[in-house]
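Standup, Tuesday
Yesterday: got the pipeline producing structure tokens again.
Today: sanity-check two examples.
Blockers: none.

Example 1:
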Amino acid sequence: MYRFLWRRLPGGTVLRLAVVLLLSGAAVAALWYVVFPWLAPRVPIG
């Protein structure tokens, strides 16, 4: 699966790596600032 996605990305290795890092950072930021704050009051901890 990852090989398929890697081949679908545009550009050479450096550009592909930059796109992967950018998309990964966007996913982490979305989780950190949107999903986790929404989920925190709904999860019973302690």
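Example 2:
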Amino acid sequence: MKPIAKSSKLANVGYDIRGPVLDKARQMEEEGQRIIKLNIGNVAAFGLMPPDEIVQDMIHNLPSQVAAGYTDSKGLFAPRKAVVHYTQEKHVTGVTVDDVYLGNGASELIAMSMNALLDAGDEVLIPAPDYPLHTAVVSLSGGTPVHYRCDEGSGWLPDLDDIRAKVSPNTKAIVVINPNNPTGALYPVDLLKDIVEIARQHQLIVFADEIYDKTLYDGNEHTSIASLADDVLFVTFNGLSKNYRSCGYRSGWMVVSGEKRYAKDYIEGLNMLASMRLCANTPGQMAIQTALGGYQSIKDLVAPGGRLLKQRDLAWEMMNAIPGVSVVKPKAALYMFPRLDPKVYPIADDQQFAYELLEQERVLIVQGTGFNWPQPDHFRLVFLPNLDDLTEAIGRIERFLAGYRKRHSL
């Protein structure tokens, strides 16, 4: 039998979770070595559990006939109605239950949204750095990802001139990740309005990934970009994974809003794809209404004295104290994107850098190029571990970087 070749569509789609660094980590764990993982936002692995009210509601509903069966392809009415109410709280107008699609996490719906839109040669503007799923699904849907630059010097905000320069006749949409993964940036209203204006001028769809919209620090507030216009088509993604610490429940939603009159064929494609997968998992759907309507415990975690805020502050202070390292302080989400000064750390291959850090110090990170950042001078750090583990992990990173500086100064 001939070997099965890797699809050309899978080339250059971003961070591959099966790569050599992850393979090495699995090997080390099988050998009994303890690794401190700063590589993935799997909140349950760090002891951050879903609110008990959500868990009890799911337990209560599991024995029901509804939980065991298929639902409408877009999802159950009650949780979709709860999402409609949530869009109203976010000042997004004109959303009905029919505009809401429930999915097995936001990831499934992001893929669905691009599958319904793209033909060969179509382009989608995606931020760099990005959450690499967006780049991957554009490529796998037959489109071409075109990365626009986010500017570290301005707090990782999108570079509007770069966006404008990269719009072409083939551009169909722009992806906005706000709050941002991997940088922790939060976009101000004026910048969002400018992005909406670019979309308006070029008739682009705005795909808004807002999965961290409640994970906000220092009193910051999130504005949903879909609230800023009704004459542009918006597709907004959100879910329970992060704000409600429910990654494994795979419960997300997608909302189509704004100018829908000229998108009938696209919406029909979304409906067809939703029907093809039958429905999202029903128990996960049943968690949405309780989550959105109940006490928002995420506020305790991000408030002064809250666990996530303390971990963010510790990680930011410790990383910035390392010679040759600088970090923009995250305003939101669970990540930061440290820069390694190339004059101090002349890294040629940042995946090799991450591999050596894992091998020598048993700390797992993701290299910056895995997020489609063009230079090997950044990496993403997840600040989910408790304060003791975080202190230990960054101490090991500091020790590794000290050795790196010593070796390359000889």
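Quick observation on example 2: The CA atoms of residues 231 and 259 lie 5 Å apart. Residues 1-6 have pLDDT under 50 and may be disordered.
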